[in-house]
Amino acid sequence: MLIATAGVLSPGPVAEFAARLVDRGSEVAVITVIEVPRSFLDTIRSEQWHPLTERSTDWTEEEDAVIDRYVTERGQRITEPVLAALRAKGLDPSVRYVEGEDPASTIIAQADKMNADVVVVGATRHLFDDWESVSARVIRDLQRPVLVVPALGRPEPETDDE
User: Fold this and answer.
1) pLDDT number for residue 7
2) E strand or H helix at 97, and its extent?
3) The whole model's pTM is what?
4) For the chain, which residues make up each domain, given as ranges?
5) Which of 28, 87, 106, 122 makes a 20 to 30 Å CA pair with 18?
6) Which residue did the predictor score with more confidence, 57 or 32?
7) Which of 100, 102, 116 is nearest to 30 (CA)?
8) How far is 95 from 29, CA to CA, in rounded Å?
9) 3-state secondary structure of 85
10) Is the pLDDT of residue 33 over 60?
11) How far apart, in whole angstroms, are the C-alpha atoms of residue 7 and residue 162?
12) DSSP 3-state of 148
């Protein structure tokens, strides 16, 4: 099972579904795709690059390390609620923080890479409106079962009937 979250996936319902769907010992992986606009950063860097200097637009190890640290720190914040809920249900999930500029394509590639039996995604809006969500693209393009867990609704405000 691959659980893809951008931080809005409802941890409780996801953990409930996972506990019911997977056998003990089966792989449960939680991923989040962190968009790092390297192409934009390359453009900015290239404007500083001058062909008469020795500087290159290739990424240095130090720059890659900074980006890797950003991806890991952001990934931890995003996935921690889902990981905690899964662990509370007795599951032992792995976690992957994946850098990618196209979240849907990255989720699909990761699902194929791990040969996931099912992919769990969230939905915060209507999936098939004019706006095409990441979840809608995963449902449309992934050749595997997809479980969509809607975001928990906001509680109705209490009214004073007096």
Assistant:
1) 87
2) strand 94-99
3) 0.79
4) 1-49+107-115
5) 106
6) 32
7) 116
8) 6
9) helix
10) yes
11) 39
12) strand
What is the DSSP secondary-structure string of 2-51? EEE-SS-S-HHHHHHHHHHHSPTT---EEEEEE---HHHHHHHHHHH--T
Q: Are 148 and 136 in contact (CB under 8 A)?
A: no
CA dist 50 and 4 (Å) reads: 41
User: Is the Cβ–Cβ distance between 18 and 120 less than 8 Å?
Assistant: yes
CB of 76 closer than 8 Å to CB of 97: yes
Q: Are strands 119-123 and 2-4 parallel, antiparallel or unpaired?
A: parallel
With bands split at pLDDT 50, 70 and 90, how would you rate the model's confidence at 48?
low
Q: What is the pLDDT of residues 106-135, one digit of tens each?
A: 999 999 999 999 999 988 766 666 667 888
**In the chain, what is the straight-line distance between the N-terminal and C-terminal CA atoms, in Å?**
50
Q: Which residues contact 68 (CB under 8 A, 6 or more apart)?
A: none
Can you tell me which residue has the tokens 């001058």?
50
